[in-house]
Specification:
Largest sheet: 9 strands, mixed
Oligomer: single chain
Order of helices and strands: HEEHEHEHEHHEEHEHEHEHEHEHEEEE
Distance between the termini: 40 Å
Number of helices: 12
Radius of gyration: 23 Å
Shape: elongated
Helix content: 25-40%
Length: 371
């Protein structure tokens, strides 16, 4: 119940505000704040990287003196450490709020619970609205995953026919999925920090691999190419559009002159040796982690998809299905490679969600089961 005795919908407003920060806050989480006094909203706020100020401070500025004695609804525990701004817990204390209701604790192990502790020590009532924890966590899946596991969240995306194919053996002009489905893919790209493909896809399709949503981002989408021999063409659309936003993951056997030519164009090249002379996926993940990229989206071909799935590199999938069948043994499956040789060894998924895409397409979102 809210402070006015009515059903508590203020947290839902805070969650809606937090969603406005998606794609605009990394490496920070998206947070929403609503300040209520005597049953009336007196302040609202959400965080964006360009706006600098955290959601709590934006809401407090709007509320002004009305924040004193008010209840603050937050999607995440207020910070207790000094970053680009001072601790939000201190700002709430200084404003004289009476109560803070948060949907979840901060998953950062270095700060978890400390914001709440600081508020309680100042005499402010603290409540964790656990009924909203799942909704709040869903907004910040990459941030939560990064903090809990120490690695970026990796999502494999694919456009697939009903029989699991992603490409025909000859002419691949046109699209598997509809314009509506492809527009939703741009939403996923916008909410991702980095996007990965293989050199085979680049050579075959010459993609830009950029965020075409035209929405504000906290930083450019990092385009990652798994390219063991540095074959990324200098005349490719990716290289021509490079603004220090391309990472090539090669091997130590890549020709030095090719690497240098790419670096001269502003392409970042790192070397990591994986199995069978291929570039190492874990080298890419390590780079992303060290540079605080919270999420990676894979849009690649059959071979790289299988390697990423089979190795456990992938955390979740987002497959868009079109009402089509290619058939045949030469059309490429979503995941090629050697595959699993027994049914009992199949890669399994959990928490499967179906998303309808009118009029007759759908998407499957699911998490990879890991030991």
């Amino acid at each position: 119940m809210s402070e006015s005795g009515m059903p508590d919908h203020w947290m839902e407003q805070a969650i809606a505000l937090a969603r406005q920060g998606l794609g605009r806050t990394s490496p920070n989480p998206a947070v929403g704040a609503v300040i209520v006094r005597e049953g009336v909203v007196v302040g609202r706020g959400f965080h964006t990287w360009s706006g600098v100020q955290h959601a709590e401070r934006v809401a407090l500025e709007e509320a002004g003196a009305n924040a004193r004695g008010a209840t603050v609804y937050l999607t995440l525990e207020p910070c207790s450490h000094q970053g680009r701004t001072g601790p939000c817990a201190d700002a709430l204390i200084a404003a004289g709020v009476a109560k803070v209701v948060a949907a979840m604790e901060d998953p950062n192990p270095e700060v978890r619970g400390k914001g709440f502790e600081r508020l309680r020590n100042a005499g402010i009532e603290v409540e964790v609205a656990s009924a909203y924890a799942d909704a709040a966590e869903a907004i910040n899946q990459p941030f939560v995953h990064y903090m809990r596991t120490g690695r970026p969240l990796v999502m494999l995306k694919a456009a697939v026919t009903l029989d699991g194919k992603i490409a025909a053996p000859e002419d691949n002009r046109g699209w598997i999925t509809s314009e509506r489905a492809r527009a939703h893919v741009q939403t996923l790209r916008h909410e991702s920090d980095a996007i990965m493909t293989g050199i085979g896809t680049v050579l075959a399709d010459d993609p830009l691999l950029n965020d075409r949503s035209e929405l504000e981002r906290s930083r450019p989408l990092l385009r990652v190419v798994m390219d063991s021999q540095c074959r990324l063409p200098l005349e490719s659309r990716m290289v021509k559009s490079c603004q220090e936003d391309i990472l090539v993951v090669a091997t130590t056997a890549a020709p030095a002159e090719r690497r240098q030519r790419l670096e001269d164009k502003g392409v970042k090249v790192i070397a990591g040796d994986g199995p069978y002379g291929r570039a190492n996926l874990l080298s890419a993940l390590d780079y992303l982690f060290k540079n605080r990229y919270l999420s990676l989206m894979i849009e690649a071909g059959s071979k790289l998809n299988w390697t990423a799935l089979e190795s456990g590199f992938v955390d979740k999938i987002y497959f868009y299905y079109a009402p089509k069948i290619l058939g045949g043994t030469q059309s490429l499956p979503v995941a090629g490679g050697a595959g699993r040789q027994r049914r009992v060894d199949a890669i399994r998924f959990r928490d499967v969600t179906l998303h309808t895409i009118p009029p007759d397409e759908f998407a499957v979102e699911a998490w990879l089961e890991k030991d």
